[in-house]
C-alpha cells in the first residue's frame, strides 16, 4: 500500500518538483551550517575583541584623566612665583617664604585622591610639605624616600613612581603613586614638586569585567596594577607581554588555558594596559552552535518529506473534488493536470479577497491613507494610479483641487486646552468641513500637521468653479468661528487634471496660506504668485542691530529695531516665507545666546519650534519679537554687572587691542591675573566658545575690513592681524569664509557691500554661513 501511494505521488510532476526543491533546500541548509561553523570563530573573535579594546580604552581615559588632574597641580605649582621665591631665598629667609608655599600645597592637597604635596629645595636640602610644613633638613622628614630619585628628577621633565609611605611595605602602610615635576631655574633643576596620590583611590575608578583580568605596566616594565595576586604568575605575564609585543591583540596560552590578550598604550603616562579574557566557555558555544545547525538540517529534511507526503493526500483531495465537479464527464477516472484549476480558483479567491478587504476596512480610511502616502511620497506613480482606480471609482475624471485649512496662532490656541479637548475640537472642525463642503463637493480630509488639514476636492456639478469653492470656504470659516470660537485660515491651490499632480497643488496651497502674514486671520487666501524678496543685506543689518542691542542690554533699542524691521516688511511686501525664515532665524539666535550664557529663555519661546511662527501674522510676530528681545535684554543687563562678565570683557578688549601680536592663552591669563585653566573655563562659560576660536574670528573679521577698505597686500594684512605666515592666514581665512582672501577682495569690489558679510558678534561667538 505504501509503495502504491509513493508511486502515485511521484507520477505527478508538480509533486516531483516540490520534492526536488525540498531536498535541494535541505542540502543547502546543511552546507551553509557547515560553512558557517568554519567562519563562526573568526567572526566571534572579531565581535569579542571590540568590547575588550573599548574597555581598555575607557580605563586608559580614566587613568589619563586622573593623572592629568594631579600633573596639572604639579605643573601649576612649579610655575608659581611663591615657589621661586622660596627656592631662591637664603637659609635665613626660607622659613618665612615657606609659610606661603605651605598654604599653596595645602590647597592643592585638598583633593581626596591626593595624600600629600611637597616641594624640595636641592640647593639647601630643605623641604616643605602639606603634612608637616617646613623642615630645614629633609633627612628629618617622615617621608624621605624620594631623596633617592634626585638624579632622575634632574634628567627627566616628569617622573612617576609607585612606592609605600616611608621605605618599607607594612600592613598599616599606605601605598602611593608619586608624580614629580622639576622646578627649573637658569636651565637647571633648582627643586621639585612632588604630588603623592593615594594608590587605591587613583585606580578605584577603573572599570572591570567579570570574565577579564586587567594589568597596568609602567615604562620600565614594572607591574603597577593590580597590587594583589590575580592567579596569573608574573613569569607567565612576562611571556604574554613578549607575545603581544606592540600588537593590539593576540591569542596566548597561560597554564594550559587559552586567552584573548588585548593591550593599549597611554600617550600621557606611557603605561601599557593589558587584559586577558578566557576563551574556553566561548568555544563551547561555537561547538554547540555547530551541532545544533546539523541537527536542525536533518530535522528540516524529515519534516519536508513528511509535509510533501501529507500535502499530496490531504491538500490535493479538495482540488480533485473540484476538478470532478467541473468535469463530470471524466467520472473521476482520469487524474488530469491541476493547472487548469488555477484560473477558476484564482478568480474566486481574488473576488473574495477584494470584497473581504473592502468589508474589513472602511473606504474613507483607505482614501485618507492614500492621500497621506502621496503627500509623503511613499508610493510610486504606478501604485498611485492603481489605487486611484480602486478607491475613487465613483469619482469622475474632472479636475481636482487641494485646500489647506490651518488653525490661526496654533501654539497659543493649543496652550489654552488639554490634549483631549484639542482632539475633540479638531474632530468637530473636521465634521463641520464635511457638513459644509459635502453637498457640492466630493472630498477627502486628511490631518497633515498638528495645526492643519489637507482637503482633496472635486466638484459634483461640472459647472462649479473656484469662485464657488472660495464662497464655501468663507462660509466654513464663519461657522467655525461662531460655533467653536476658533479662528482658521484656508489656502486654495490651483486645479490639477490628474492625481499624480496632487503634491504640486498641495505645495502651492501651503505657499498661498502663508499670505496670512499680511492679510490676517480668518480669511481665504488664493493669490497666484509673489515676486518680492527681502534683500540679503537688509536681513543681515536687522539681525546685527537686534543682536547688538541684546549684547548691550538695551531693551528699548531692541524693540525699536523690531518695529523698524516690521515696517520695512510691510513697506516692501516681502515674500511671506522669507519673513517667516527671518523671524525663525533671529529666534534661533536668541535661543543660542541664552544657552551659551546659561540663561532661561522667555516663556514665549520656552518650547519654540519652526512651526510656531508659521501660523502667526506679521503683527503677532512683531509683538512676539519685541517681548522676547526686551526680556532677554533685561537679563543680559543684569548679567553685565557680574564680575565674570567684566573679566571676560577685559579679555576681549585685550584681544582686540593686541590681535596683531603673537598673543596666546598664557598672555591673556597674565593680563587678567588668573590661571590658564580658570581663564579657559570662565571664557567658555560666558561666551560659549573657546579663547582660540574667538581670537581667530576677531582676526578674520579685521582682515575682511582691511581687504575691503584698503589696498594692502595680503601678506601685509596677514601680519597686521597677527599671522606671521601668509599660508597659515590663507588657510584659516578659507576655512571660515569658504573663499580665499583674494577672492573675497574681488567679490567685495564688485558690489557696494561685502559679498559674504560676517555675522554680527553675539554671545561672544562669530558665526559665518
Give the distance, in angstroms, between the N- and C-terminal Cα atoms: 86 Å
Give the helix proportion (percent range).
55-70%
Main beta-sheet strand count, sense and barrel state:
6 strands, antiparallel
Which structural category fits the helices and strands? alpha+beta
Assign an overall shape.
flat
- The CATH homologous superfamily of the domain at 363-525 is called Reverse transcriptase/Diguanylate cyclase domain
| Strand order within the widest beta sheet | 3-2-1-6-5-4
Share of β-strand residues: 5-15%
Helix count, DSSP H or I runs of 4 or more residues: 28
Low-confidence stretches: 332-336, 751-769
Give the C-level CATH assignment of the domain at 363-525: Alpha Beta
CATH topology heading of the domain at 363-525: Alpha-Beta Plaits
CATH architectural name of the domain at 363-525: 2-Layer Sandwich
The number of E-state strands comes to 16
Backbone CA Rg: 40 Å
Q: Give the mean pLDDT.
A: 79
Keywords: DNA-binding, Membrane, Transcription, Transcription regulation, Transmembrane, Transmembrane helix
Organism: Paenibacillus terreus
Region (Disordered): 744-769
Transmembrane segments: 292-311
Overview of the molecule:
This protein is α+β, with helices and mostly antiparallel strands and 769 residues long. It is built from 28 helices and 16 strands. The strands form three sheets. The protein has a six-stranded antiparallel sheet. The chain has a five-stranded antiparallel sheet with strand order 8-7-11-10-9. The protein is flat, with a radius of gyration of 40 Å.
